[in-house]
Amino acid sequence: MKVKQNLRVRIDADSMERINHWTDIAAGEWSCLGSVSDEILVGDVRLMDQVCSAASTELSQEALATFLVTHPQPELVRAWIHSHGRLGVFWSQQDEACIEGLANDTYLVSIVVNKKREWKARIDVWQPFRLTFDDLPLEIRLPDQNLRGECERLFNAHVVEMAPVLMPDWRGGKQLPQQQGQPYRGGWPDFDDDLADWR
Ligand SMILES: [Zn+2]
Predict the structure, then answer these.
(1) What is the pLDDT of residues 121-160, one digit of tens each?
(2) Domain ranges in the chain with CATH number 3.40.140.10
(3) CATH T-level fold of 3-141
(4) Collapsing DSSP states into helix, strand and coil, what is residue 79?
(5) Digit-coded pLDDT (tens) for 53-86
(6) Counting C-beta atoms within 10 Å of the first and last residue's C-beta, which end of the chain has fewer, N or C?
(7) How far apart are the CA of 193 and the centre of ligand 1, in A?
(8) What is this structure's pTM?
(9) What is the 8-class DSSP label of residue 106?
C-alpha cells in the first residue's frame, strides 16, 4: 500500500537508551510500554511488573491494568516494546496474541529488539479496518538542546564567509554585491547550479 511508504516510527533517544540498557541487563526477554504522540514518536517507556524467561515475556492483564491506572496519561500508552534477548527479531505467535490483547481504537506501535541491537517495528490498526504495517523504519530522535541561538552567536563570532572570486564579466557581467575578497554577510547570491562549485 502507498500509505506505508511514508509511515515510520520514531523514538526519542532517552527511551532508546533505556531499552538498550534493559536489553543488556536482562538475561532473556523483557517488555515495556511506551507513550506515542500523534507524530508517532515513542517516548516515556516504562517497565511494568512482569515474569520473564529466556524465551518469553508475559504481559499479565493484572499488571497491565495496574500500569494504566497509575499512568499519568494512559490514553497515550500505545507502544509495546519487548526484547528477544539473544534470539533474532521476529513476531512470534505469542507476540501476535499480545498485540491483539493490546488492541485499541487508534493504533499500536510494536517494537522488538535483541542484544545485537537489531530491531523490528510495526503499527497495527483495528479501526475502521484491521491493518498491520510491518518492517517500518525506526528513527531515533535526538533531543533538541535549543542551541540554535548559541550556535548562531558563535558562528558569527568566529566565521567569516568570503564570497567566491569571480571574473567581472563572468556569466554576462553578473556582479557580486561587494568588493572581491571582502567579508560578505548578506547571504550568497543566487548563482546558477554550474557556479555552485565555486563556493
Ligand atoms: Zn517476541
Answers:
(1) 999 999 999 999 999 999 999 988 899 999 999 999 999 9
(2) 3-141
(3) Cytidine Deaminase; domain 2 (3.40.140)
(4) strand
(5) 777 777 788 888 999 999 999 999 999 999 999 9
(6) N
(7) 51
(8) 0.73
(9) S
